[in-house]
Fold this sequence. Notes:
The complex is a heterodimer of chains A (about 850) and B (about 250).
Chain A: H1 2-14, H2 20-54, E1 60-64, E2 67-68, E3 77-78, E4 81-82, H3 85-90, E5 95-101, E6 103-105, E7 107-108, E8 119-120, E9 123-127, E10 137-142, E11 150-154, H4 155-161, E12 168-172, E13 176-187, E14 197-201, H5 203-210, E15 216-217, E16 219-224, H6 230-237, E17 245-249, H7 250-298, H8 300-308, H9 313-352, H10 366-392, H11 412-435, H12 439-489, H13 491-529, E18 534-537, E19 541-542, H14 552-557, E20 562-575, E21 578-585, H15 587-593, E22 599-601, E23 610-614, H16 615-621, E24 628-632, E25 638-647, E26 656-659, H17 660-663, E27 672-679, H18 685-697, E28 703-706, H19 707-714, H20 716-750, H21 752-760, H22 765-805, H23 816-833, H24 835-842, H25 846-850
Helix pairs in contact in A: 1-9, 2-7, 2-9, 2-10, 2-20, 7-10, 7-13, 7-20, 9-10, 11-12, 11-22, 12-13, 12-22, 13-19, 13-20, 13-22, 13-23, 20-22, 20-23, 20-24, 22-23, 22-24
Chain B: H1 4-9, E1 11-22, E2 29-40, E3 44-48, H2 55-62, E4 70-75, E5 78-79, H3 85-95, E6 96-99, H4 111-115, H5 117-121, H6 127-140, H7 155-168, E7 173-177, H8 185-202, E8 206-209, H9 213-216, E9 221-226, E10 229-235, H10 239-250
Parallel strand pairs in B: 3-8, 3-9, 6-7, 7-8
Antiparallel strand pairs in B: 1-2, 1-4, 4-5, 9-10
Helix pairs in contact in B: 6-7, 7-8
Amino acid sequence: MNTSVRLSASSLRAHRRRFAGTFLAVFLGVAFLAGTLVMGDTLRASFDSMFGNAAAGTDAVVRSADAITTPGESQGVRQPVAADLTRTVERVPGVAAAAPDIQGAGQLVGADGEPIGGQGPPTVAGNWITDPELNPYRLAEGRAPQKSGEVVVNRGTAERGGLAVGDTTVLRTPDPVEVTVVGLATFGGEDGMAQVTYTGMTRADAERYLTAGPGRAASILVRAGPGVSQEELVDRLAPVLPEGVEAVTGQESAEENNEMISGQFLDLFTLFLLVFSGVALLVATFSIHNTFAIVVAQRTRENALLRALGASRRQVTAATLTEASAVALTASAAGLAGGIGIAAGLQALFPAIGFPFPEGALVVGPVSLLLPLAVGVVVCLGSALLPAVRAGRTAPLAALRETAVDASGASRTRAVAGTGLAALALAITLTGVLVTPSVWLAGTGAVLALVAFVVLGPVASSAAVRVLGSPLDRLRGVTGSLARRNALRSPKRTAATASALMIGVAVVSLFTVFGASLKATMDRTVSRSFAGDVAVSAPSFGAGGSGLSPRLAGAVAELPEVDTAVGLGRGVAEVDGDGRALTVTDPVALQRTFDLGEIDGSLDALGTDGIAVIRQEADRLGVSPGDTTRLTFTDGEEKAFTVRAVYGQSELAGDYVITRAAWAPHRTQDADTLVAVTFADGVDTAAGAAAVQRVADDYGNPEVQTRQEYAESSAGGIDMMLTLVYALLALAVLIALLGIANTLTLAVHERTRELGLLRAVGQTRSQLRAMVRWESVLVAAFGTAGGLVLGAFLGWVLVAASDGASDSAFAFALPPLQLAVVALVGLAAGALAGVRPARRAARLDVLRAVATE
Amino acid sequence: MSTTTTTATRSAARVVDAVKVYGAGDTAVRALDGVSVTFPAGRFTAIMGPSGSGKSTLMHCAAGLDTLTSGAAWIGDTELGGLDDRRLTLLRRDRVGFVFQAFNLVPTLTVAENITLPLDLAGGGGGSDAEWIDALIDVVGLRDRLRHRPAELSGGQQQRVAVARAFAGRPDVVFADEPTGNLDSRSGEEVLGLLGRTVRQTGRTVVMVTHDPVAAAHADEVVFLADGRLVDRMEAPTADAVLDRMKAFEVPS
Lengths: 853, 253
């Protein structure tokens, strides 16, 4: 063992450069992983302390006991409580103070006329609570609102909108309200609660604009007197509360709020990043394995000599593994440090780009320390295991043989096994997609397909390189021809090098194809079910924005250019016990602007006790026109509705439709999400849109979009997601490039004498450089082509499986332009990877290369 | 081709006062110590000398593979000292041929492609050369092996391909560095015969470094090197005469 360690130490010293690529691959993967874990923990801890601080003064929260949660929503909708319950609460012994907390959506318009925020995080408006202990916001500047129209804004929002104390602007609730900023506030010592915008108004204003009627509040915040614990306070409050209203401790409420952000958002965010560090590490595995395989092949004679001199198999294997361990440990440790550095850098960077990152020390938990280290070491050692075993198997006689170059091709077994595996993968996938739709089957098939691609790589590489490289002979003459043949020399090595890039490109194309398919689906949905001419929507995304004024549809309908204008609002109720979203609208007008497919019954007279249901939901409930179903609203009222119509397709119109009159008694803050408009006969779209825009200007300037624009903006979030995904995948592609560069450097080293000969008989330096670069491009082209095919296939599987698994039909689309860009990037990346090895090859000393040993 | 009288008076390659020093200070080695020699065109010249006499260094410097510490080297009328790496490379490609002791062929190229490699690197390989290449292939006798890879040939066959490649570009001079060093005597004889025949039949010039008197006997003239200096010349050498001359080096007088 001692000998093995000494051998590997001297070998590492001698070939430091060879392991630079391996080191970098492990380093980058581990750094990404560690950075993700540390940042997740740090954010979680920061949010914990921020919510803890902000809610420290609230000892109990009185609120409605039930929440209705619709599918796909993290936070349920709670019924409001009566604001005058505050007086009852105040009289309970041990209560020092109580205040109603009214909350709704309110989007401020900045100094430039553009709405602030609304692209994800909520835009919150509420009453400014005068008791400073109960109010999570603190006045940092100015004063509290005292009369109607005065507001306090959190400082971060004011800065983003260019607003200062004394400025007048508009608050969309969604009806535009003219407000004057009289104060700026902070949350838990920061400029705001992450990117959430907050506007605090007088209680009277809040009741007027944010609730359906006066006297309601989202909850009542209670502060305990001296010596009363939170639990005691809750116990004392419970008896005085009416049925359906509960009291929870302030701590519990803070934890719930925190859970909403860190539990839902942070966990998802962290998982997302972990998946990409997984991809990066998978790619790294190929690069590392390849490096060790080549190094072992190049060292065949050296290892054979050791074996001839009496070293045991185990000693030779151990020496190689010790080398791998040394690289693994140093690279993982460096990666860990790098990851922590990245997290620290982001913590410093976030505030600079206007994203308040809560202060606090970096949290480096034991998992964030041990997991990346363990993964780095396992990946590195695992990748080196096979080459190390092969090194041990070196026959002592190999010391006498001339060739030390691994020129192993594709074996017949491999071709048969790979083809069998590919067939199996295809069969399982197709079964999972077409025969019995199952995401699990499709997923298994997809993973098998990936494995089959990797196994078949060496078999395919010869043919692929020959085809891909055939234009090179004509294009670059003997230089191109030499490059092509060099890439063909060791199909196994070419395939292993290309596999890393193939996986990277496959994941990129998978997302590209899936994104394009989602867009195509959205486009098809709009063109199929939206029969209107223009759509008015508030430009928002996620939980932000305040929607459209419910009066906008009526105002637009009065235009002479307009035939029908229908507003779609959103309500929630439990239908037969399950939370569901309701579309609140004028059903008659709805039919004129949306294609609802085949309708059983009629939507013409739903009245206050009628409901229309999409066919899938009707089947689930087992109802048809004429039957009744029970709806429970957030105010606790349960009411029987008669199913008057069952319609065939929903997509944009929602699964349940009720009238505004039926919703009115249960409404909270009124807002429409969309106003669909059809023009009168003979009205030009542009002219009509301009007329609608003029009306919309009075209602907070929402966007008026043609059908095409509406479809495009509906898909806007997809581009944002894709950009993020591409940024994250750049790392995997970078690691793949390092792998190509490393293989080429080793190959150049291996071919020293041949390159010397070429230079001696007249190959110029630039021809030599071109030869190495073209070889790199060819390997990259093979990886890119494989990745594109695999990615497109996996994209199709994903789309088809989603199509089978969900109600809405998915469209599959192959975006030619984006995929062409992916292909070009892959080729350019190959050229880039070849630059350094090419330069090293060109620096070669001709004389030393041709001088005989 | 031209008449022997004109080619014999012209020099294909020459070095004047060539000095080559490796290393510096105490460890400096003078591999060449003021050598002046002319290799006349249309002749087969052998450079002989014991190990460390500087014969390989002389060849490398005369061929533009290495640079002199002082003095000058010429290929035809071109002085090599004034050329940058690119011009030197182009000169080697267009005007010089090489046959090394081993590893003479590019393993990924076929025999035919190896032969035309310098022409292909120049981007030409056009019509007028085709006839010449065709004749060369017959001279080296490898017509039935043109589509083979080097790994499928014997050592002697590989060296014959290397000879064909060296002459393919009709160079001013072909340098051969121990071309028979790795071959058995029969194959070596074939390669030497080939070099000699090519010089005599086509008027080309060959400069060969060797330590084998039998090989040197194939040359028109032998120049002897010892301790980095030119010590003797011998016209129309025989193996015995060369061997006798070489023995003289071993017993310092």
